[in-house]
Amino acid sequence: MVLLEVDDLKVHFEIQDGWVKAVDGVSFSIDSGETMGLVGESGCGKTTAAYAITQLLPPNGRIIGGRIFFKEPPRVAAYRKEYDEKLKESPKARQRELSRVKRKLDRVDQAIGGSAPEVEELKDRLAALNYSFDLIGLSKRKDGSLDDYNEEIRKIRWTQISMIFQGAMNAFNPVFKVGDQIVEAITLHEDVEESVARERARELFEFVGIAPDRIDNYPHEFSGGMKQRAMIALALALNPSFIIADEPTTALDVITQDRILAEIKRLQEQLKMAMMIITHDVSVVAEVSDKIGVMYAGLIMEIGQASQVFKNTAHPYTAGLLGSFPSIKGEKRRLVSIPGFPPDLVSPPTGCPFHPRCQYAQKRCREERPEGVTIEPGHVSYCHFANKLWEKLRRTA
Amino acid sequence: MAGMSRYVAVRSIQTFITLLIILTLIFIMFEALPAKPQDLLATTPNMQPSQIEYMVSLFGYDRPLSERYLSYMVNMLTFDFGISFSQAEPVSEILSERIPRTMLLFGGATVLAYLVGIYLGALIAWRRGGVLDGSSVVISLVFYNMPSFWIGLIFLVVFASELEWFPLTGWYDPTDNLPYVIDILWHVCLPMIVLLLLSLAGTVLLMRTAMLDVIGENYMVTAKAIGLPESKVLFKHGARNAMLPVVTSFIIAFVFSIGGAVVLENVFSFPGMGALYIDALFQLDFPVAQATLYIITLMVLLGNFAADLIYGYLDPRVRI
Amino acid sequence: MKTNDAVEDKAKRPDAKELQEASIKTFQRLASGFFVTWKIYRRSFTGVVGLGIVFGFFLIAVTAQWTAPYDADFKAPAIDTFIADYASRDLPTDVNWSKVIGLTSSIKERPLERVMVYSFEEGQTIVYPVTRGIGELGEIGIEIGSPTTYVLPSGAEYLDYAHFYRSFFFALCPCEDGSNATLMEYNYDFAYLREHEVPFVPLYHSNLWNGFSPLYQEGRLALAFADEHNVWMINKRPPEITEPGIDSVTFTNSLTFPNATIVGNPLVVDGDFTNGSMLLVPTDEGIKAYSLVLTRASLTLRVLDISIDKLEWETNYTIDDEPFEPVTGNNMLKFPYPYSPTTALGKEVVAVGSTDGRLVAFDRVSGNQTWWSKPILPGIREFDILDLYSSPDYIVMVGTTGEKGLIASIDPDTGRIGGNNSYFSTVDSYLNSEPQYVRGQYRYVFSTDMGTIYLATNEMKVNATFSAPGGGAVTPASFLGNIYIEGSRTGNYFGVINAEGALFVETLTGVNIAPLPPGTYPSGNYYPLGTDYEGHDILTQVMFGTRAELLVGVSAAFFSVVIGTIVGLVAGFYPGLVGELLMRATDVMLSLPYLVIMLLFAAAFGPSLFNIIIIFAILSWAGIARVIRSVTLTTRKRAFVDAARVSGASDTRLIFRHIGPNVIPYTFLYMTFMISGAIVTEAILAFLGFGDPNAITWGMMLQFLQISGHSLDAPWWLLPPGIAITLLSLAFYLIGRAFDEVVNPRLRRR
């Protein structure tokens, strides 16, 4: 079942020189219990894309377009796609359809009432037309600007979608006790006594392998690894159905990295939560992800099941990215770095953003932005020549 | 809280040492002045010979420097300042009447400036780029660079002379038919507002910068991500941290503010320590000037000590 | 190490062409460096605004000479600043007029309005009647009527005058030819002038007490004249009812001092009429005090006779048994105030000035020394006492300090300046007239050798200066007394003769209308921002003030930054004990209330721009030292420093050649902040009275506003200097902030 669906998300940042197109049309979906890895170099927009889900963007960041559907019932999703297809982007037609369905619902509701399947269907249709499960639509003010502290999104934050930040990097407020910060999250969303919340915090600490007594310590009294564990404890505090982990292992030493990854794996196994892991470290994704999205310059380059992307690489960038990391399995090969630098996202290259660095680039790459090419079911590459290249790339990988 | 008490002890000792150094500096400064107290003493007519003797022996102007320094330190630390050259009254008596007034003016304005400044600075940083931010920064910058006495004069002209909302000068006027305390507050109001505005400007600018730094911190994203409402993110998590650098700069603000108080007391004819100090300087009344300078410095140091304690309370990281 | 440097030098020794190329290259590098910096800097809008303002002020400072509407020392002419209720009369021009005296009576019931002008050289005197009336339009004006001319003995010297019972007496001393003095009597009932021969050469004269009191109006004139060894009493008996028509003047040699020499005016002291009227005679042996006996007729309320009774006390000139040199001359003994018995009663001391600037007071009745003091005049190192005068509340001291005149009010209870609101002022030159007390207004009028007329408060704060209409007074200003309208007093008048030989009789009230609001005035001058109390054009002053502000701001900041940078460099380079000590010192400096200490230094070292610059530099280096230290600490660890160290560079070389350049941007940054601080600080010091009185600065403009008492009613004077201070300080601050963004990228916002 699809838990989260991101559709054509565009996030731009306003800076002195213009707009940074950090995320410029990204789509993907995650099923319940699935772990997706989002990889890419620093500044490719992966973190921005993830933060946009719960609207945690800095003030100069704007969600320019796109929709994020969370916990949308499958039937609503189906209707929605059907309507999108049928109505294209014609708002008038949608408006007409909306009033038609409303009238029909009123009629049927009066005639039959209750929870008859017909009423349910109409309600779902209405929800689909209204994009009722779109987190961004819900947060829009009347003037179209985004209210990122609105009630709706605040209720979803942490209860449904929690996050694992880089614990070592000040994700905990240095002036409060770590335990108190967990208690704060619990009491914020649940009407429980503080003592109950504290007890839960102790349990969480125990679960992630920290002595429960340490909840009365301040962040600066924790080691980097402990902070990361405490961060995981905080993320689990309200038993969310979806966790976004932002570079969970960066800035940790290799041994601690390993432990934290083991911890995350354990979570997946024991709690069956959906996860999204954002990292620049391909090896991390390889270890824990079911699905992989490769991002470059604000766009998805390649997306698919982990095995598909790793084995049947169908995008030159993915190949380059994989080539620049040592293999997890310990195969001996030369590390190859991608020549050149990531583009300036204020004025990204025309066509395929990777073309200036791509050894296979041709005229077409400069002019047209590639459409997704489905290599195998669930495995899509955004390269004009994916079909031609994937054989070759597989060999090099 | 063992860390805290150790921190307090260390801070107390540091403050005391600083006080000793400053006392020494004041001693050296007065020793280095071209006009010598004993010469002035001899030319002051209404000083009885016995008083002169008393003062000479009290300050020991005839004794060697080292001995004089010791007795000076003891006298200052025991608040025994001798007798004024110009008023033939014990300095401590003259001062004891004036200290509460200046404390009220300076303390009141400083505390208010911090409360309002921290709140306002946090708020405008949060809404940065907006009209509130722009105008607050411009107004703060202008106030920050205005000479204190001038803005005092303008307030005097507008609010006391033209609009007659406040009395022109002084501390208490029995003819106002107001209860004593109310009348005093009414008199203190205008100088305090001016001092408040002057001190506020610096605090707002400082707090704004500190808050802008804090806004970029990861824990602010965490606070937002766990679903806290905006006000809690802003004040509980943001302002609480942004206050730290502001609190560490208290001493500079105190020094600035006490300077402002001295100047404004003279503009508003407010009979506090600042006015006393200027009078004493004009008359080269050394014991009064010395004692006033000492008390002013002491006030700044104690204020800073209090700030240190607040800092220790606010930031667990220093309590080691 | 040295060899290393030398080798380096040798290898680099260039020939002329290389040198030229190198210099071109350096210049290009500099230019491009400047250009790059400017490109970054230009992004900061506020910084560019700040630079623009500073540049504007700099232009003003440089071009003030040509662009300012007036000269730096310009004063609005009297015609603009001085709207006097006055009358003038052209005098015969072939005569050198030397004195104006008002015959105006201060007795309300017997109004008399006459002005007498003298020329002693030509032996001429003219008496003009002066009347005051209401004009057609209802305005109050005065008129000078037709004169009567009298001939006086030529070469006479004017001594003093007194009113007495329809007569106005003045003594003349034609002492040059050795002949005796003449007592002139002007009878104003019958408008005649007559002479009385005086049988001695009067060197000194008393305060010409006439024994008058509200109770005993018909008194008896008791003049005391003195030569070197004798005191003469002059008696004038008014006509009695029983013997009408006879008023006689007699002289009696009342006291003789064969051994002692009289050194100053005898002083007749009016206690009350029952007891205590005294005659004090200053001699070279000391002061001798005699009691006076008054014979009174209680029925007719007139004083029948006044005679010297007996020696009450005498004292020599010593202070604490140490002799002092008294200031001798006409006004050596003063106080009590002679014309007002009721106020004099409480002030029972007689004061003497000494040539070393001390004052001594003796109890009038007992002769005991009650106090002595050396008045302290802040900002004035040395002064000489010339004369003492009495007034109801103070002893007035007239003196000199260098080229300038000095006038002070002295607390009669303590002899100090500063007690009882007493104050002092310096004026442009020596006083050429007695400071004349204007009763009812509690003011003084006096004039100086420069022809300037001053009005001062009772406390001797100067509150107006002006010159006579038509170009300066050639005679000392004399207070003429009150002129009455319909029996009630309506104004205080003084008279002068100006350079064109016209007599002016002017009111003291409302004469100086400066500060002038902006506008065009009778002289045709336009004052765009108005004038200050003395008639200085505000715009001109603000423009010329820019120079001092920039000078003080930049140099004070420069010195403090130099100190701070050196301390910071050393502390950062030697982070051990030396650095720790320096930083503790810095912390202490930071917790000193610097403004309060600056005031102390400014008070102690005297007010001058130079002192302010030095004081500021000494007290404000701490902030920058801290910053420079932290920058040095990080720079010190960078690779190129290690490289230089390894190649054997000395510590000094490391600090100044390798670390220094990296620290310079911060130095500049803090210098702009410091300039901003120094400008405001200078203004504050000046405003509180510790500024340089000889420099035009914005702070001094505001201090003068405050002490002249116009801070509440002259916004055109209050606003421009303050706005200028704020703008200039803000401009430097903005430059600093913009610079901060360039130098400290951490603060650059995304």
Helical residue percent of chain A?
Answer: 40-55%
**What is the CATH topology assignment of one domain in chain C?**
MetI-like fold
Number of strands of chain A: 11
Sketch the major β-sheet of chain A. 8 strands, mixed
The backbone outline of chain C, from C-alpha atoms, is: elongated
Q: Give the strand content of chain A.
A: 15-25%
Q: What string, H for helix and E for strand, traces the elements of chain A in order?
A: EEEHEHHHHHEHHHEHEHEEHHHEEH
Low-pLDDT residue spans of chain A: none
Radius of gyration of chain C: 35 Å
CATH architecture classification name of one domain in chain C: Orthogonal Bundle
Q: CA-to-CA gap between the ends of chain C?
A: 46 Å
Q: Could you describe the largest sheet of chain C, including whether it forms a barrel?
A: 5 strands, antiparallel
Structure explained in plain terms:
Chain A is of the alpha/beta class. Chain A has 15 helices and eleven strands. Chain A has helices at 46-53, 74-87, 91-111, 117-130, 135-139, 151-156, 178-189, 194-208, 224-236, 254-271, 282-288, 306-311, 316-323, 363-367, 386-396; strands at 2-15, 18-31, 35-39, 61-70, 161-164, 242-246, 274-279, 291-296, 299-305, 373-376, 379-381. In chain A, the strands form two sheets. Chain A has an eight-stranded mixed sheet with strand order 5-6-7-3-8-9-11-10, sandwiched between helices. In chain A, strands 2-1-4 form a three-stranded antiparallel sheet. In chain A, a hairpin with a 2-residue loop joins strand 1 and strand 2. Chain B has 13 helices and no strands. The termini of chain B are close together. The model of chain B has no long low-confidence stretch (mean pLDDT 82). Mean pLDDT of chain C is 76; it is low at 1-12 and 340-346. The interface between B and C is large, with 52 and 56 residues.
List keywords for this structure.
heterotrimer, A: 397 residues, alpha/beta, 3-stranded antiparallel β-sheet, 15 helices, 11 strands, 41% helix, globular, B: 320 residues, mainly alpha, 13 helices, 77% helix
